[in-house]
Amino acid sequence: MEPTGIDPKTGERQDLLAMIADQRTNFLYTVAGLTDEQARARSTVSELTLGGLVKHLAEMQRSWLSVIDGTAAPEVGWADLDPDGNRMTDDETLAGHLDAFRAAAEAFDRAVREEPDLDRAITLPRYPWSPPEPLVWTVRHILLHIFREIAHHSGHADIVRETLDGASTTQRMAQAAMNGE
Predict the structure, then answer these.
(1) How many angstroms separate the CA atoms of 118 and 90, rounded?
(2) What does the pLDDT read at residue 8?
(3) CA-to-CA distance for 25 and 37, rounded, in angstroms?
(4) Most-buried pick from 59, 80, 94, 164 (CB within 10 A)?
């Protein structure tokens, strides 16, 4: 019998998912132990808040999942974007955003494990910042983009958290490693 595909528990696919999971874990260390007020607080001149970053990364994972599964709109205009998409509003909670983040991560990872071909080409939706010609990425490229996006915003979150209350993500990571987490 011929092999029908790559075992999703080994190889490149699992390596990519493990790297994304590691970035998610590092990000979650950064936002651990915050109150809703802290999660809404701006600690720099930018609009970035820790709750807003959690919200953004949850939506980003849901959005890319819709690209992979073919349910994304072919074009997204400025009016389609949530003006509060990168900040935590007064009626939102950090716990709610963390639940959404974890649910989005689980759904995204499940879809990637079930994806038969990491080389499958996907035409990306057009955004106001898209180049004039259509962009076509592979599922693999999308995975690498997700990794970059989470790592990029983890750096933002680390700076915001250190400025907010002096907490160090690196210290939290080291403590978790020493505790076998």
Answers:
(1) 40
(2) 52
(3) 22
(4) 94
Output the CA angle 2-140-62, nearest 5 degrees: 115
In tens, the pLDDT along 80-98 reads: 999 988 899 999 999 999 9
CA angle, 96 as apex, 151 and 53 as ends, to 5°?
25
- pLDDT of 139 over the 50 cut: yes
Of 180, 143, 177, the closest CA to residue 18 belongs to 143
Q: Which residues contact 174 (CB under 8 A, 6 or more apart)?
A: none
**Packed helices 50-68 and 11-31: angle between N→C axes, nearest 10 degrees:** 160
- Are 61 and 104 in contact, with CB atoms under 8 Å apart? yes
Q: When comparing pLDDT for 181 and 75, which is higher? A: 75
Neighbouring residues of 96: CB distance < 8 A, sequence distance ≥ 6 = none
Interatomic CA distance for residues 26 and 173, integer angstroms: 7
Residue pointed to by tokens 């720099």 = 44
Residue 47's pLDDT band (boundaries 50, 70, 90)? confident
Helix (H, G, I), strand (E, B) or coil at 48: coil
Residues 54, 55, 58, CA angle at the centre, nearest 5°? 85
Q: Is the pTM of this model over 0.70?
A: yes
The closest alpha carbon to 110, from 13, 28, 4, 6, belongs to 13
